[in-house]
Amino acid sequence: MKERTKILLIDDEESGREALTLLLKAGGHHVSGSASGAEGFQLLGRDKFDIVITDLFLPDTNGIDILKKVKGDSPLTEVILITGHASAETAVRAMKEGAFDYITKPLNFDELKIIIAKAVEKRQLLTENVYLRKQLRDKFEFANIIGTAPSMQQVFALMKRIVKTDSTVLITGESGTGKELVAKAIHFNGQRRDKPFVAVHCGAIPENLLESELFGYVKGAFTGAMRDKIGKFEAATQGTIFLDEIGTMPMQLQTKLLRVLQEQEVERVGSTRPVKIDARIVAATNLNLAEEVKKGTFREDLFYRLNVIPLPLPPLRERVEDILPLAKHFLAKYCKEMRRRAMTLTKEGLEALESYQWPGNVRELENLMERVAALTEEDSITLQDLPPNIREESLTRVTEKGVDLVRTLAEIERSMISDALALSDGVKARAAALLNLNRTTLVEKMRRLGMPL
């Protein structure tokens, strides 16, 4: 059942107030009436209203004071002013104080119904926007970023200081280490959290389109420019612009970006009129920009402009203690999405994950957990459920934890025999030939390893 809109009607003319109350109630609204500003303030103190409709002139106060009170206590409540013809100019000025609209006397109820419907729609959109922004803030809270390793604790400590500033940040780290996640956490925990977060993946946009994507363009600037369009910098006004893969930016655009950072203004493609911007810059790269400067592929002055606060992210292989909590997190996520029972890692499976070097970092681990959640029939993930490259690496590396050589050799034999049988459609003679063994030797090994014959 749709929730009724709660309206507070403040009007000192009793007959008009009662008539309007009846009409609003007939329209399905919940209406409370008040004959004075003082009574209206009392009702506002006791209850929350979606819409306040008030006469601009009351015996003991005026609609402007009521408007300020409402907007100060409940910014999402919309205020509609009732005014006489002579005071329409005053009502328009009141809208600058936050009034939604005004209607003149004598009231046209059909017109008022339209204004109320628009106010309800606006309030719903604002409420949804607040809810979505809260969800984003909750999602990107520091506590939701998994990292118990000392190197990650250093990252968190630096991030907590970064969010108190508006300084430019350069996030560095290998692909898959979570640079965009960290950029969003900086934004949604900072002073600009309620403003836009605009991400630009510089390496994914063709060079001939990147300039207009960043800075916008005016109508007629090039073939197909049928109207003016703002760029990402303008879209990020008062918020944050995240320049991912900044190291791939062409040299020509690096020069223009440097000017934007220096002057805090952009020029749309095809225009000579500068547009002031106010956006925090967070850039990210998996390249060593200092080395790129030496090679001549990245501007030195731009590097220093971006590298105000460097934030390096450690690769997953250097934070082994985070592999288990990350794996559990991703398993829980994908088991829930796939509506299957919770899954666990066996000791051997975890040891394999901790021995692996993870060239794709956290992103690779997440993709693997999605794969095993989709393809593993049992609820426990064993060594055999993992891809061959992870199994083989875990079986051939000696870590600080040591290694059980006998068990490891047995696992290697079991893995190779399984692969040979799969290639031979289960025909043991053919599998034995692939392994350069006699069939009887293969069967004996399978029996010793506890494999089904």
Automatic annotation (TrEMBL):
GO molecular function ontology, one term from the record: ATP binding
Q: Which UniProt keywords apply?
A: ATP-binding, Nucleotide-binding, Phosphoprotein, Transcription, Transcription regulation
Give the top-rank taxon of the lineage listed in the UniProt record for this protein: Bacteria
Q: Which InterPro entries match?
A: AAA+_ATPase (IPR003593), AAA_lid_NorR (IPR058031), CheY-like_superfamily (IPR011006), Homeodomain-like_sf (IPR009057), HTH_Fis (IPR002197), P-loop_NTPase (IPR027417), Sig_transdc_resp-reg_receiver (IPR001789), Sigma_54_int (IPR002078)
Residues covered by the Response regulatory domain: 6-120
Which positions bear 4-aspartylphosphate?
55
A GO BP term here is: regulation of DNA-templated transcription
Name the record gives this protein: Fis family transcriptional regulator
**Which residues belong to any copy of the Sigma-54 factor interaction domain?**
145-374
Q: Where is the signal peptide?
A: none
